Model the fold of this input.
Amino acid sequence: MYTKTTTETTHTPEPWYDSSTGNHQGLVLSEGDGQSVAVTYQGPADAARIVACVNACKGLNPEAVPEMLAALESFTRGIDSAEERGETFVNLNRLNFHRRRFRAAIAKAKDPTS
Done:
């Protein structure tokens, strides 16, 4: 699990939840103490999106998310390409390449020093 070092800025602990001010503004609140974390001025949907992202990434190193996405995109492109060529067998070497990328991305997400 990803933990912050003492040199990093800490943030309000998850979980967060969203609410509305009634004036077309969204609120992001801490479930722990109910304190306001943020106000969104384009509507409650922005607050809901912020909350969904923050809560989904709890315990992850946010810097690893782009690498995880790239690994998954690469894998799906490989599978799509194999399907387009009409391959009906599993190429273990290709899958092992992607498995290594997935494992590295997962390790970084859980431990930024890996």
